[in-house]
Design goal:
Blueprint: H1 6-24, H2 26-32, E1 34-35, H3 36-40, H4 46-50, H5 58-79, H6 81-102, E2 110-111, H7 115-128, E3 133-134, E4 143-144, H8 145-162, H9 169-186, H10 190-193, H11 195-214, H12 234-259, H13 266-278
Antiparallel strand pairs: 1-2, 3-4
Helix pairs in contact: 1-2, 1-5, 5-6, 5-7, 6-7, 6-9, 7-8, 7-9, 8-9, 8-11, 9-11, 12-13
Length: 280
């Protein structure tokens, strides 16, 4: 495994800084996470990129950073900083794009994490160097890159099905396929001499992609034992949230009339400030 290049190191540092701020400041976290309604209704497209530098916790962050360190060095060294960064950010957009498509009718869905970008880096490296060894502290020997990539896909599938966290697991697949495609566009000759490991990764990924697009209920945890949850459209969600927000504001205004502005809690002041800032 090669030393990480300057672009890889900058991405790692940026992920740590932005994620740490998000750990300490929920308002910051909420402002920059990916949320379907905020992107598709309010056109806050910056969230597609900014959410890629936020994480839900230290374990989530460290797993992504280790993967970026392990695969980013060799990929950046081989392709150069600019193609490497193109793969990283294209994977981030491709991953979040797939997540937005899958959850387009669930306006409240949100996610964070460098899932798509890391997936793109991993699968781009696998496409070019499927046999390279990846070593970890707890393992006495390295494992082939394609095996690591395969396990990464399994982790993504489990995350989508279990729905136990706020991690953008769908982005793993979208970013991974984007990264592999770009790597093969940069180095098309790799397809001929790495065809088998590329196929072993790509075919299951495409099957998985078909399932989450055309048969999403098959991947929902507990589908056989409970009724399917209702998903409200973005319009319904928008109208419901607007009505709820108006009720909160009306109650706060009544409290001001009765007891004065200083009687408000900090949370009530924040709600009023946010509401006033949303009026155009």
């Amino acid at each position: 495994m090669m030393e990480a290049g300057i672009a890889t190191l900058l991405l790692i540092v940026t992920n740590f800084i932005v994620s740490f701020i998000g750990f300490k400041n929920y308002a910051f976290f909420d402002r920059y996470r990916m949320e379907v309604e905020k992107v598709l209704v309010y056109k806050e497209y910056r969230r597609i990129i900014s959410s890629g530098f936020l994480h839900v916790g230290w374990v989530h962050l460290i797993i992504n950073v280790i993967s970026l360190w392990a695969f980013g060095g060799v990929l950046e060294s081989f392709l150069g900083p600019l193609p490497f960064l193109l793969i990283y950010f294209a994977g981030l957009v491709g991953g979040e794009g797939l997540s937005l498509w899958v959850h387009r009718n669930n306006g409240s869905h949100s996610s964070v994490g460098a899932s798509g970008a890391i997936g793109a880096v991993i699968f781009a490296a696998i496409a070019l160097f499927p046999g390279m060894k990846i070593g970890f502290f707890l393992l006495p020997i390295g494992i082939p890159a394609w095996i690591y990539g395969f396990l990464y896909v399994l982790y993504s599938i489990y995350g989508i099905q279990s729905k136990q966290d706020n991690v953008g697991h769908e982005a793993h697949l979208g970013g991974s396929l984007t990264g592999m495609l770009l790597a093969l566009l940069f180095q098309p000759e790799a397809l001929s001499y790495n065809l088998l490991p590329i196929a072993l990764i790509t075919v299951p990924s495409l099957v998985f992609l078909f399932l989450i697009i055309r048969r999403p209920h098959l991947l929902q945890a507990g589908t056989l034992f409970r009724k399917r949850s209702h998903h409200y459209s973005i319009d319904h969600r928008f109208n419901a949230d607007r009505a709820q927000r108006q009720k909160q504001v009306d109650a706060i205004l009544d409290k001001i009339n009765q007891k004065g502005y200083n009687s408000l809690s900090q949370k009530e002041k924040d709600i009023l400030k946010e509401y006033s800032g949303s009026i155009h």
